[in-house]
């Protein structure tokens, strides 16, 4: 989905603070959320978690889980009581104070329903949802295995969907196997080109009659449903708009406050 997005790094960091967190796993009762995933994804600049294939998503989630476990172990080892830890905390205190202060500032900002609607009306082109497909797949290592699965599907007649789900659970090497190969909704840019081309050619309720080869192996794809491109309704994006407008107001307020502070301060810049 195309979105209207603000580019400030500070804005993005603060936006994480006001967004609803999604839980990906639990480690000894503690949730692994979007924030934990974002920390792992910093090692892959320019890559979106949502655009990763299912297997890669699972690897990222597992890395976040391992990170939680290592943090727990560091606490058990009393790292928080060491001189090195206390010095590190002292070095970042100013940054932490600034971040907390900024969070408090943004919490005070209000956005009206009229402002949200006005932004939506003026930026509708930014809320266009592309063509979407809801599909499931079976991933195997060899073309021979894929052809064998397709042959089994052809014998299933009207029960092709239930047969597909059954075979996915038994034979697919993808993490979606336990859910009958279900990948949910995606657009053309969210999956590898070979998969995308094959999936978007299929009609609802149809499956690929020849194996689809990609860098991950051989896929058999079944299409559950399709949605044509459409402009998202205001009710579907008003929360996103509200957050964006909050960030914009915050940036304007901070810039103004910074300029006022500069005028009052004695500043000497070394040359």
Please, could you describe this protein's structure?
By secondary structure, this protein is an alpha+beta fold. The chain folds into three domains: 9-112, no CATH class; 113-128 and 236-271; 131-228, Roll (Chitinase A, domain 3). It has nine helices and eight strands. The chain has helices spanning 9-18, 34-41, 54-76, 83-107, 113-122, 143-155, 160-171, 193-201, 234-264, and strands at 23-27, 30-33, 128-129, 132-140, 182-186, 212-214, 217-227, 230-231. It has a four-stranded antiparallel beta sheet with strand order 5-4-7-6, sandwiched between helices. A two-stranded antiparallel ribbon has the order 1-2. A two-stranded antiparallel sheet has the order 3-8. α6 packs antiparallel against α7. The radius of gyration is 24 Å and the shape is extended. The model is unreliable at 1-19 (pLDDT under 50).
What's the arrangement of secondary structure elements?
Layout: H1 9-18, E1 23-27, E2 30-33, H2 34-41, H3 54-76, H4 83-107, H5 113-122, E3 128-129, E4 132-140, H6 143-155, H7 160-171, E5 182-186, H8 193-201, E6 212-214, E7 217-227, E8 230-231, H9 234-264
Helix pairs in contact: 1-9, 2-3, 5-9, 6-7
Q: Enumerate the spans where pLDDT stays under 50 for 5 or more consecutive residues.
A: 1-19
The tally of helices reads 9
Instruction: Determine the N-to-C terminus distance.
Output: 48 Å
Averaged pLDDT, please? 90
Q: Biggest sheet, in brief?
A: 4 strands, antiparallel
Backbone shape: extended
Could you estimate the helical fraction of the residues in percent?
A: 40-55%
- What count of domains describes the coordinates? 3
Content of β-strand: 15-25%
| Biggest β-sheet: strands ordered side by side in the sheet | 5-4-7-6
Structural class: alpha+beta
- Count of β-strands: 8
**Element-level helix/strand string:** HEEHHHHEEHHEHEEEH
How large, in whole angstroms, is the Cα Rg? Answer: 24 Å
